[in-house]
Design a protein that fits this description.
The chain has 361 residues and is α/β, with parallel strands linked by helices. It folds into two domains: 179 residues, Rossmann fold (3-Layer(aba) Sandwich); 156 residues, 3-Layer(aba) Sandwich (Rossmann fold). 44% of the residues lie in helices and 16% in strands. The protein has 15 helices and 13 strands. The protein is globular, with a radius of gyration of 21 Å. The N and C termini lie close together (7 Å).
């Protein structure tokens, strides 16, 4: 049954990448299940640009924070968010950071999707873990997208979260009539995404090489982006390398369908939406052997250990040159991706957000 008040989604921490796309997908679908959904985001973020207000869905976009983003976010959440909860008579709050400075007078569900909070050793990540532990004392539920993430969160936070995998939009991400040609990597330009290894792998392929297409937001770490660009410039003459960002969902889906194979060498991941979207488009994937990526990709992916470009290139070459191996990987990926949907994810999140109201009804 509908909620008695609004659902507030605090997406201030979901500015880029898969977390932002997940916030968009959930907000759009939850708005059809509740009286009203209010999404808090930043101007210029993927969430602000990807959500269109409509009946049952409102977007409150705060001013872009060029400096002191974390401090400004925490101040807003400490003083303005509790007041917004009261004024909206909100029944539930979904937090994408899992860190709120003050308790809110509503059912709080934290979706923890940042693996660096649990794996990073710096002072900032220690502070994030402390803040998450403090917030979870008042939270009704903690969610994570993989079992591997749940183990790390349990060890760091002392609370066992529920596992709710993310989904894929099969209406948008679907196979092309014929295989594409590109080697594709979709990942924002953080150093831990290891675009440098992707470049080295591509350079280790036998010629003539397919186009290497790197799609990701350079603003998340401009220094790393420039380092990757300089690396690519040194490989001029080996083949075509392109850099793209700011693609719409539909254009991103077209990029997947134009690919022969998808690859990702990331060192940290909680769930990999591009991996799943590639599989849904019938594109075989070659990714690092991480527990979270094995959950996302299942038996429909090829996993590589370590940083040897030769090993990575061998895995890619097999899918580029061997039609039987390519067809088998394509079929396995399609079958695996069919198990995931945003409808299923939304139903799982909704049951946690509205459990109190449903029980009362």
């Amino acid at each position: 049954m509908p909620a008695s008040g609004a659902i507030i989604i605090d997406a201030l921490a979901a500015r880029y990448g898969g977390t932002a796309y997940a916030a968009i997908e959930l907000a759009q679908r939850l708005a059809g299940e509740a009286d009203e959904v209010v999404v808090i985001t930043r101007e210029g973020s993927l969430v602000a640009e990807g959500l269109e207000p409509r009946l049952g869905l409102r977007v409150l976009a705060l001013g872009d924070a060029h400096r002191l983003e974390l401090v400004r976010r925490l101040v807003w959440e400490a003083f303005r968010l509790p007041r917004l909860v009261r004024s909206e008579r909100a029944s539930s709050v979904l937090s994408w950071s899992g860190i709120l400075p003050r308790a809110v007078d509503a059912r709080l569900v934290c979706f923890l999707a940042n693996p660096l909070m649990f794996e990073g050793r710096g002072a900032g990540n220690r502070l994030r873990r402390w803040g998450a532990r403090r917030t979870l004392r008042n939270a009704s539920q903690a969610l994570v997208p993989t079992e591997a993430m749940a183990k790390r969160a349990t060890q760091a936070l002392g609370r066992v979260p529920d596992v709710v995998p993310l989904g894929v939009d099969h209406g948008r991400f679907h196979p092309a009539n014929r295989p594409g040609r590109d080697v594709l990597c979709v990942a924002d330009f953080y150093a831990h995404k290891r675009q440098d290894l992707v470049l080295a792998t591509w350079a280790a392929l036998p010629g003539p090489r397919p186009r290497l297409r790197l799609i990701g937001n350079p603003a998340v770490n401009p220094g790393w982006y420039e380092s990757v660009r300089h690396h690519a410039e040194r490989l001029q003459g080996l083949g075509e390398i392109t850099f793209e960002w700011g693609l719409s969902h539909d254009r991103l889906a077209e990029a997947f369908r134009e690919a022969r194979v998808f690859t990702l060498a990331t060192l940290h991941e909680s769930f990999c939406l591009p991996l799943l979207e590639a599989q849904a488009c019938g594109v075989p994937v070659v990714v690092r052997d991480l527990p979270d990526l094995r959950e996302t990709g299942g038996s429909g992916a090829t996993y590589v250990e370590g940083d040897d470009p030769g090993k990575w290139a061998a895995a890619l070459s097999r899918l580029l040159a061997d039609e039987a191996a390519y067809a088998a990987a394509r079929a396995a990926g399609l079958e695996h991706a069919s198990r995931f949907s945003w409808e299923r994810t939304t139903a799982a999140v909704r049951s946690r957000l509205l459990v109190a109201e449903d029980a009362a009804g």
